[in-house]
From TrEMBL:
Transmembrane segments: 21-41, 61-78, 85-103, 109-127, 134-155, 161-186
Keywords of this entry: Membrane, Transmembrane, Transmembrane helix
Protein's name according to its UniProt entry: Uncharacterized protein
Keyword Metal-binding among record annotations: no
Domain of life: Bacteria
Entry-linked InterPro entries: ABC_thiamin-permease_prd
Amino acid sequence: MLQNSSPSNTAKTPRNFRWRVVDIVVASIIGVASGLIFVVWNQASNPLGGLLTPLLPGLQGLLGGGWLFAGVLGGLIIRKPGAALYTELLAAVVSTLIGGNAWGPLVLVSGLTQGLGAELVFALFLYGNYRAYVALLAGAGAGIALTITDLLLWYPGASATFMAIYLAASIISGVVVAGLLSWLALKGIARTGALSRFASGRDATAVV
């Protein structure tokens, strides 16, 4: 009597979403390194924003990507639930404690919401799809989260025009800087062999 394909051939190997020690270590390195970059960006963003605002109020949202990449990069590399949130929030903590900023501890609220914005996109794909377009969507999600937080904390009572421009600029910045550049950075790091213990490293040559 003929039998159907054996379960070993048809069943998918269940994903293991438990964090390993190496996941925690690498995610922490990403968060701390990103936080140091945030320190520099905190200083550079104000003069750059001063140049953009007179051109079109709300256009300063284009600078947002400089604070959004940590969560997207962490999520792409670690590929575990909570990775995007952890790396983005840790980066915000580091930038606050080490370099200080002009916005005070409320930056931690921004780190939390921006990390959630990217995290929700990865969750939407059940933490199983890390192609380029997912990275771009995660960047867009972080950009939307940044807009919501910034409008509530820093621009209360802003006009509808300002809000629309700020949202569009933040999404564009999130897609390009946090999404595309993080995905390219992942590919570059993975090809060095530094991520050999991660699925992201083994998939370095996968089709987009």
